[in-house]
Predict the 3D structure of the following.
Amino acid sequence: MTKTAFITGITGQDGSYLAPFLLDKGYIVHGLERRGSLSHTDRIDHIDHENLHLNYGDMTDGTNLIRLIKDIQPDEIYNLAAQSHVQVSFDTPEYTANADALGTLRILEAIRILGLERKTKFYQASTSELFGNAPAPQNEHTPFHPRSPYATAKLYAYWATINYREAYGIFASNGILFNHESPMRGETFVTRKITRAIAAIKRGQQTHVELGNLDAKRDWGHARDYVEGMWKILQHEIADDFVLATGQTHSVRDFVEAAFALIGHDIQWQGSGVQETGISKQTNQILVTINPKFFRPTELDILCGDPSKAKKALDWQAKTSFQDLVKEMVEHDLST
Ligand code: NAP
Ligand code: G4F
């Protein structure tokens, strides 16, 4: 029987990989699209498929979500929509809580109000940000200590998902995903900011890139691998919560070095703190400077996930290496 999926956040990075993945599996896919004065659908405009349908709505509009879920009658909901930028959440904490925490509650309530508890499975896009500065490696048993308005909102959504599973028997699962990137990554996240800057420097449109904390470490995988994990989480025999990660960690500095090496610049670091610069060994150009405006009021020093539960229970593992991820992103930005 043909399954129907509803993806909130279909216009974002992960939605743009999940939608074709589900269409290839024969799903009818509905997505939630925010109305903007300019189109938000660039990442999915190339998908020309009779089974893809977009519906206007917003995570802050509960009646709209109830009506859409009533009409769509989804077998699976992938709740990917969120104000997902950690630094922006310090400037917009109330909106972030509304969209990310209450938005999740609105969907869970819609499932309950519409009597879909036995029909509709629910996937919540939880995050390694929940762990804060807990020692690495982090897994499903690591205590949470959120350190941003984004992470506190996501903590509410994480527990709402578990509560609706326990209280109403909804198949509701959390994927606790570590950072995942791609050529579709938003342009102000650090990886894509670096790869886009490299392309602009190569074309002579920019001289250098300004960054914040170079020493933060992240467990960076590829979004393509992680959307398969989301689907596997909803195909598991019971609803449960899973870490998806590569198990490897790299600093922002490592990412800078790997990315610039691909256009022939070995970076040498000079100075310290806000005076630090990254200089090309080949040309002596200053390619990286520090701008304190990119520092956060509270930072996570090291994220490195332990994905062994997902490997064992879901037969899932990240396939793309750090080097291949950096290369794909740089090559994409050089070509566009
Ligand atoms: P993203 O590229 O920022 O996409 C976010 C999506 O949410 C976009 O489609 C955006 O729509 C939509 N959205 C934001 N606010 C909304 C609202 N009020 N109503 C309706 N839609 C709204 O994020 P992503 O990287 O794909 O991440 C997907 C999800 O996974 C997010 O929930 C994120 O917090 C979580 N997550 C991401 C990572 C990661 O490393 N990528 C790791 C762990 C968890 P517009 O296109 O209109 O802006
Ligand atoms: O790329 P980022 O902005 O991603 P961050 O904060 O790790 O959050 C991402 O991953 C989370 C999962 O762990 C998701 F839940 C969340 O939705 C998002 O997808 O920053 C990564 C690191 C940070 O330590 C930041 O301080 O890079 C550091 N950084 C250094 N310079 C910078 C910059 N980050 C940004 N965005 N811009 C900079 O110029």
